[in-house]
Every structure is written in structure tokens, then in C-alpha cells.
Amino acid sequence: MRFEISFFGHENIRSLHPKTIEITTEPHLTTNGDCIIGVQASSGCNDLPEKMKMLLQNSKSTVNCTILVKDLTFKVKGQGNDKLTLTNPHDIVIRKSAFTCPRTMATNCDVASDAIPRQMIKTLQNPDTTGIFSIEVT
Questions:
Q1: Contact 39, 10 (CB under 8 A)
Q2: Which of 50, 116, 117, 128 is the most buried (most CB within 10 A)?
Q3: 13-72: per-residue pLDDT in tens?
Q4: Range of 113's domain?
Q5: Sheet with 36-38, edge to edge strand ranges
Q6: What Å distances lie between residue 22 and 34, 60, 91, CA to CA?
Q7: Which own/partner pairs from 121-125 qualify as long-range (CB within 8 Å, at least 24 positions apart)?
Q8: Which residues, in sequence order, are CB contacts of 27 under 8 Å at separation 6+?
Q9: Tens digits of per-residue pLDDT, 71-110?
Q10: Is 109 helix (H, G, I), strand (E, B) or coil?
């Protein structure tokens, strides 16, 4: 199953966090949010389709996320987790660890925000830039 979430860039995007990647529906961002790569996202965890939530709540599921910004692409591979609640209305966080909270969408991911190419981050520092966070769960 596949689902796409649109988001916008922000001048404070840093993408330096070594363990997570996050998008948020919130319009504002401080430099403390160093895992956030997009604001004004069209969905938080709570907005994901019910069928996708069921797949994400299975630790045998594979989660492939693709971040698309202009002609740039970045891929992340992770897994579902039977402890996910997927109830946060604002945020989606994918993690390298197995930690879960209402904001967590995938765990045990192969990369975090510090691995995103700096060219993509520089592009996302323009608030007019739009991106797509594509989620595929099998």
C-alpha cells in the first residue's frame, strides 16, 4: 500500500539528527527541531489510512519512504512495529531505533536526517519549496 504526504520547506530546516526524520503539520520550526525536514505537511500519523496503519502495526512489514524534492530523491527503509499507536495528529517520525510513541510511523530505519544530501536540505530551506513524503508498506 502506498500513501503520499505533501509538505513545505522552511528556513530553519537543518536535518542534522543522527536517529530520526520528521515531518510536521505545524507551520513553524525552530532550529532545535533538527530532525524535521518539512512543515505544513498534509497529514500526521493519525491521518494515515486505516489499512496502512494496520500494516504499519505489524513488525513483519517493510516500510519504504521516499522523500521527493524537485528533481532530488532520498530513500529510507524501515519496518513496522506492533507497538505503534499512530495517533499523533501533527507529526510523523521515522526512527533508526525501536523506540515508539504516538508520533512514530516506522522503526529500525537504515538512515536518519543527517544522511539526507545537503543539496536537498539547502533546497528545503526555501519556504516556497514543496516536497512529497511517499510511504509504501508491504
A1: yes
A2: 116
A3: 999 999 999 999 999 999 999 999 999 999 999 999 999 999 999 999 999 999 999 999
A4: 2-137
A5: 36-38, 20-24, 91-95, 104-106
A6: 9, 22, 7
A7: 121/13, 121/14, 121/15, 121/37, 123/9, 123/69, 123/70, 123/72, 124/9, 124/10, 124/13, 124/15, 124/37, 124/38, 124/69, 125/9, 125/10, 125/11, 125/12, 125/13
A8: 39, 40
A9: 999 999 999 999 999 999 999 999 999 999 999 999 999 9
A10: coil
Closest to 104 measured CA to CA, from 90, 89, 91 = 91
Read off the DSSP letter of residue 57. T
> In the structure grid, which three cell numbers stand for residue 70, read together?
524537485
Could you give the number of structural domains in the chain?
1
37 Rama sector, left if φ>0, alpha if ψ -120 to 50, beta otherwise = alpha
For residue 100, the model assigns a pLDDT of: 98
51 CB neighbour count, 10 Å cutoff: 11
Question: What CATH number should be reported for the domain holding residue 125?
Answer: 2.60.120.630
> Could you give the CA distance from residue 70 to residue 131 in angstroms, rounded to a whole number?
7
Mean pLDDT of the chain: 98
